[in-house]
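The aim of this short unit is practical: by the end, you should be able to scan a pair of folded records and say something sensible about each. We start with the first protein, listed as its amino acid sequence and then its structure tokens.
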Amino acid sequence: MSETASSKYLVTGGAGYVGGVVAAHLLEAGHEVTVLDDLSTGFREGVPAGATFVEGRIQDAAEHLDPSYDAVLHFAASSQVGESVANPGKYWANNVGGTIALLAAMREAGVAKLVFSSTAATYGEPRGDGPLSESSVTAPTNPYGASKLAVDHMIAGECAAHGLAAVSLRYFNVAGAYGRFGERHDPESHLIPLVLQVALGERESISVFGEDYPTPDGTCVRDYIHVADLAEAHLAALRVAAAGEHLVCNLGNGSGFSVREVIEAVRKVTGKEIPEVLAPRRAGDPAVLVASARTAHERLGWTPSRSDLTGIVTDAWDFLRAHRARTS
């Protein structure tokens, strides 16, 4: 299938934040898209116009896949770290069991290309302060990261045994918004939307967990990637996926922003005061967590173009205010 030809894709979890933005990009590129989502964490209105929506579980993917599909983009997963620690069985059942069923359905239907939404949580706590590469040690510290790593191993075996063409994209901190598609998790655990909730008056303050880390301002540094840059990487992955190969690529900017830099950016963008509350360090929080995206640059031809923190925060702020206005 050529880069410019129209293709047909199944997007599992396409009613969620990242899946919805990727589905929108696929449609804008002229492709046919079916979204499969059980709406357990996604939203019906998060499915872009023009996509066919099927409400269902990935465990039942065999009911919806057929040889007319060119590839699957797989975003359907449970993804809360804290919940995975409290309820690990849910994560093995949904993330691993669901993907086992999906891969079997793909084999049965003769769909031989997959792009998988993986995560930086597969690496666990970094060893050293340098950017993490795909060759870094994978030692997840929670069942969420472990379940995603298990799926990566599963996909590698599928490529070797059955010739699947697959790319796993390991995200770092996804942020920003793309038009009407933005971040609205419940519960919310990500820093930028949490600080924006303070700006909206929905939260009294933002907690800063430790200010004595070996970083320029003493707070943790993380790598933030704009969700639209992330979506473009998925389309690039579809183009380069090769039969029998499991390609793993980190997606990030290669540099990071501290907790206090994020808070200052929100103050600048919103013009609001953001009260801070200093809290003790959280166990397992590394001082610096950033990605080396060299493999994505070399293999996918991908370089993020929306790396400015102010721009990322502005897009998230515009989305959040518009969403609140629509739903109030």
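Turning to the second protein, read its sequence before its tokens, just as you did above.
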Amino acid sequence: MTTLLYTDPAFARHQTPRGHPERAERMIAVERALSAPEFDVLVRRRPTPAPYEAIAACHPSAYIEKLEALIPAEGMIALDADTNVGPDSMIAARLASGAMINAIDAIMAGEAQNAFVAGRPPGHHAERDHAMGFCLINHVAIGARHAQKAHGLERVAIVDFDVHHGNGTQDIFETDPSVLYVSTHQSPHYPGTGSPTERGVGNIVNLPLAAGTDGPMYRSVFEAVVMPAVRAFDPDLLILSAGFDAHADDPLGDIRLLEDDFVWITERMMEVADRSCRGRLVSCLEGGYDLAALGRSVAAHVATLAKD
């Protein structure tokens, strides 16, 4: 099995204030973890920036233009209490979305079966016309729409296991039955969305979890709800919003998953991809803010993706 890894030095140049949890050191931790000899099997590629028309398939042109206009020539500007931009922020965001597009194109061309996008800033909180939660543009949404527009795929499923609800992904697709969005997330917690009653047009499945949920409890819910929902949807492509802030050591959440749990989630998702879409799966890094836990969790996830 060929697994692609997309990353770029520009991801570390997106600036955040001192002490901010979403910091450049996250990329160093991921790169260090994936430099072990076992990851020599990965096919490593540099992404190209997402074209504006691909971004505009999910975000209005006026929003993109406004965001571009806010990028400073030097220093940082705060868009809100959590979300900052510096000179290289939009470059990094476009490369992260571009990596999703590149990965999908490569997989559809038969060059690989799956891929991992190790980029930042994350994307799943970015709504159609609103940056928030460290996120500027929504990489998984842009990738899903590209898969449909460029490759004619009818159904794309997005499964989000970040500790925070992906309000942005839900906002973009909540009236679109061709995209399934499934989220497991701590509740109550930021951003305050993700109730089970938020069902879109039947294509949104939210599974709020209480603080303290551990691996066995999480697996039970995943088996009972997530797996049947994705199987029933029978996607042509499976995308993961891979947030590792559900790890027990993460400072921004209180879900108690460990590396073995991320292996288990990855295996279950690969089973669905094998059954429904010829193994076609693209995973995109979202959260994960304890550097040691992030490195170990990404290594466990990617090693599972790369197994023969």
